[in-house]
Specification:
By secondary structure, this protein is of the alpha+beta class. The chain has 3 domains: 1-173, 2-Layer Sandwich (Alpha-Beta Plaits), CATH 3.30.70; 178-231, Orthogonal Bundle (DNA polymerase, domain 1), CATH 1.10.150; 247-395, DNA polymerase, Y-family, little finger domain (Dna Ligase, domain 1, 2-Layer Sandwich). The protein has helices at residues 17-25, 50-53, 63-69, 80-97, 117-120, 123-138, 150-160, 173-177, 190-198, 204-209, 212-219, 221-231, 261-281, 314-325, 346-354, 362-385, and strands at 9-14, 34-37, 45-48, 74-76, 101-105, 108-112, 142-147, 165-167, 247-258, 285-295, 300-311, 334-345, 403-408. A 5-stranded mixed sheet has the order 5-6-1-7-8. A hairpin with a 7-residue loop joins β2 and β3 (45-48). The structure holds thymidine-5'-triphosphate (TTP) and magnesium ion.
Length: 421
Amino acid sequence: MTARRDATILHVDLDAFFAAVEQLDDPSLRGRPVIVGGLGNRGVVSTASYEARDFGVRSAMPMARARRACPQATFLRPRMARYVDKSHEVMGILASISPLVEQLSIDEAFVDVAGARRMLGDPAEIAATIRRRVLEEAGLCLSVGAASTKFLAKLASDLAKPDGILVVEPGTEHAVLAPLPASRLWGVGPATMAKLERMGLRTIGDVAAIDEQVLVGALGSGLGRHLHALARNDDPREVIPERDAKSIGAEETFAADLHTVFECERELVRLTDRACARLRTSGLTARTVNVKIRFGDFETRTRARTLAGATDVSTIVFAVARELLAEFDVGRGVRLLGVALSRLDVVAAVQATLGLAGDAHSERRDRTARRAAVERAVDEVRDRFGSLAVRPATLVEPNEDRPNEDRPNEDWPNEDRSTAG
Ligand code: TTP
Ligand code: MG
């Protein structure tokens, strides 16, 4: 069923991350409710310490409601630069445990420890080592899930929270999964959950036990097969560190499906910006732009186009991504969008920086180089203040470096770099 038997995929997630950093830096806040987020009238909670969660305060809750629920808390604005520093510190510790670390967000990562066992012990021992070292060296608590698949490892770290370890031993996967509500399956939102309930399917065990064809009949082949596989812990995704990636990208699953071109393009700007920022941080350029779309019924399609020359400029990538998006009927409802950059090249990155790339007209090249310089400056600010701080106000439409080659339906370059969970 699954590629590996042992619980050698670890999912590591810091506990109440922003609030924990605030408690670390100000000992008078330890053991007390701390709420971090936007403090204005329309602010929302980024996160709350577990002491504040006892009062029902949660991420994404309006701050006004959090103030009513827990008036005695200390309310703080996020200090992104500090959190980014602490995140790097923790990721550095993980990298010293195993070379196979795939960071998912500012405070979570997958770590493949299959190769570290000889040196460091079984997955439970390695998980304990990670927790001890992160506490001693970075002063932060985290939870670890260990399992044979990414899906189950992530679920396990959630079940272990806060300040815990859950190792799903080989052979016990089904016993752990079966009693959990089907809504824990990645891809099940309220609408799908309602459909499952109408079929009498409440738990993951129910979904695993039903005939796949029945699920496909009710939910469509994409979603039906996907959920049936996950419910049986069939998730072949491997842990892929960024440096080995054949592509760099960003994708997002939306809480509610998008239906208009305008909404999709707005998200596409953000995703393009994120993907290009990663590209530039890695010192790379790309030649191929890939757009991935997953519709409400879970059908997933991709389109790719290759540029005349390599680039790391968001505006150029966005122009192409937008044309690729236009080839889809977004009116069907869009569950997920992704932008990925492939055909990566280090040498081209150096040439682009020096203004040597391609044989483009020199004035045009200057404009491109200037824009690249601006975007690099934005990256620096983003590094210091975190990704929430800088958003491009607009992305001007470029009229250079048009694509010269159409490569429809190329495989998505790196299926593994997906939003798990
Ligand atoms: P999470 O890992 O989801 O939450 P957490 O670390 O605060 O708490 P725990 O993992 O113990 O449940 O997110 C990591 C950080 O990302 C979080 O500290 C603040 C930020 N964040 C937001 O800014 N807005 C959000 O809606 C969420 C969920 C997180
Ligand atoms: Mg966390």
